[in-house]
Amino acid sequence: MRTISAHDSEDPPVNERFDGSFTQQEPIPEDAIEAAVAVMRTGRLHRYNVVEGEVAHASALEVEYARYQGARYCLAVTSGGQAIQLALRAAGVKPGESVLTNAFTLAPVPGAVEAVGARSVLVETTDQLVICLEHLAEQARATGARWLLLSHMRGHIVDMDQLMALTRELGVTVIEDCAHTMGAAWNGVRSGSHGRVACFSTQTYKHMNSGEGGLITTDDAELMARATVLSGSYMLYGRHDAAPPEDVFARVRLQTPNCSARLDNVRAAMLRPQLALLDRNVERWHRRYQAVSGPLASVSGLRLTVRSNAETFVGSSMQFFAEALDTTGIQALMTECRARGVELKWFGEPTPVAYTSRHDSWQYMDNQSLPRTDAVLAKLMDMRIPLTFSEADCALVGRIIASAFEQVRDRSAAA
Ligand SMILES: *Cc1c(COP(=O)(O)O)cnc(C)c1O
Q1: What is the Cα–Cα distance from 131 to 87, expressed in whole angstroms?
Q2: How far apart are CA 158 and CA 125, in angstroms?
Q3: pTM for the whole thing?
Q4: Cα(first)–Cα(last) distance of the chain, in Å?
């Protein structure tokens, strides 16, 4: 997977190249493939299509994920975005209400707020890529918002003790978007266990891969009953084994619409063996993150985020700030890295490329002024770290970025 020129030279290697693919995830484990194929052989792909005494994979996955997360209840759904949408509705967000949310996040987050007819009130991003607590308090007081959809974007976790204390004081309910923090923790508490309800994604580029898929966890019985009916339970919620008791459903079943967002048994079957590997994969990601960021730590003009000791993060991607480079320099850095096989994304790109994470590209919502976030994004670089990269690959990628950065930086300084 790697080609190194100047291999035997005593000088530091120059113009190393990498030829791995930044979008190549690991294959689905063999036992997961077999489980999925076995479901197909039965023809019973729908989660409620079970024979006497059979537990559907979707329900078994919910039980196992609830246990992993340390949550009382779990619901499997079609996508991370649908998980957020259902969680917002089930928590009680009403059309026209304001929902505080991160200005730096991925499009499905404001998209879910929009889908429930609510208004996103965007909150600034700090230079450590987490939600700004001062601005959060300001925005909550200015709008009277009762909800915070907290997105742990790219796996950066804000001080959750401070955030929970603040939101309690503000009377704001927290709904967590854990698309990038599945398997992560704050002070030993799993990410997603702080707020009222948490949403996860099992889309291909997240921490478990079923193509598409999502999970919702909560300890709130009535919220989970509503989410389950919303997900399209056809009143068969009795076949959910990580769900609240019947009497809770009896209170909400006829007041709650069916929005059809169920997970099927094929995808649930392929996720269950992956869950057993999750903690091990978190460690594998951690080693890769250390390997790639190591060579960048001493590059002047380049800044990595400082991770708190309280944070157990999943290094499935890496962000850094090209502080010393202007727009032209950043473009030159991306070109130079691409020429050496390293694919960087830039959140400062004026038009969205491949994914949108800039608030000014969500034009369906009110235009909001976020100068701090704009300044953060203007220098922010992003890179995926798939587990198909070895630790040596990651170290090579880190060296390439460091050398390309120094080259571009010194060239612009000389100009
Ligand atoms: C991927 C992602 C989601 C939702 O994921 P889908 O499963 O693709 O709908 C939500 N939030 C963030 C930050 C994400 O990156």
Answers
A1: 20
A2: 10
A3: 0.95
A4: 36
Could you tell me the two tokens for 251?
């209170």
| Partners of residue 353 on adjacent β-strands | 355
* The ligand 1 atom nearest the CA atom of 355: 15
Q: Which two tokens stand for residue 57?
A: 């994979």
194: left (phi > 0), else alpha (psi -120 to 50), else beta? alpha
The DSSP bridge pattern shows strands 311-312 and 197-201 to be unpaired
Ligand 1: distance of its center to the CA of 298 in Å? 32
Of ligand 1's listed atoms, the one at least distance from the Cα of 212 is 7
Structure tokens at 284: 């594998």
Structure tokens at 75: 């619901």
In Å, how far are 22, 394, 395 from 337, measured between CA atoms?
13, 14, 14
Cα 205 to ligand 1 centre (Å) = 9
Spell out the alpha helix ranges (H) of 144-240: 160-170, 221-230
75: three-class secondary structure by DSSP = strand
What is the residue-level pLDDT of the chain in tens, covering all 415 positions? Answer: 445 554 444 555 568 999 999 999 999 999 999 999 999 999 999 999 999 999 999 999 999 999 999 999 999 999 999 999 999 999 999 999 999 999 999 999 999 999 999 999 999 999 999 999 999 999 999 999 999 999 999 999 999 999 999 999 999 999 999 999 999 999 999 999 999 999 999 999 999 999 999 999 999 999 999 999 999 998 999 999 999 999 999 999 999 999 999 999 999 999 999 999 999 999 999 999 999 999 999 999 999 999 999 999 999 999 999 999 999 999 999 999 999 999 999 998 877 666 567 788 888 988 899 999 999 999 999 999 999 999 999 999 999 999 999 999 999 888 7
Give the residue, out of 157, 175, 203, 355, with the most ligand 1 atoms within 8 A of its beta carbon, to mutate for a pocket test. Answer: 203
Distance 278 CA to ligand 1 centre (A): 18
